Prior knowledge:
43% helix
Amino acid sequence: MQLKLTGHHIDVTPALRGYVEKKMDRVVRHFDQVIDLHCVLTVEKLRHKAEATLGVSGAVIHADAIDGDMYAAIDALADKLDRRVRKHKEKQADHRAAEVPPGRLA
Length: 106
């Protein structure tokens, strides 16, 4: 997986980069077909926003989270991405299960 981390009105410190990598490893653990991940961290006054675009095989998954603290925003973003990746994975599994004709063993 290729991780691209960008800061908008914020310097991406090694601590922030490490925190994002740690949180996104959990997402990758649930779905191993992740191609690339682009994460943008933005600060506007007291609003901290983390957004990510995840390229997986067959789809592009996008999520964003806003909070008063950047680390809390990254936590919320990781939770949202995790749910969306699991949903995408379940859709693929359901689609493949539907291909087997009734009465046949897989």
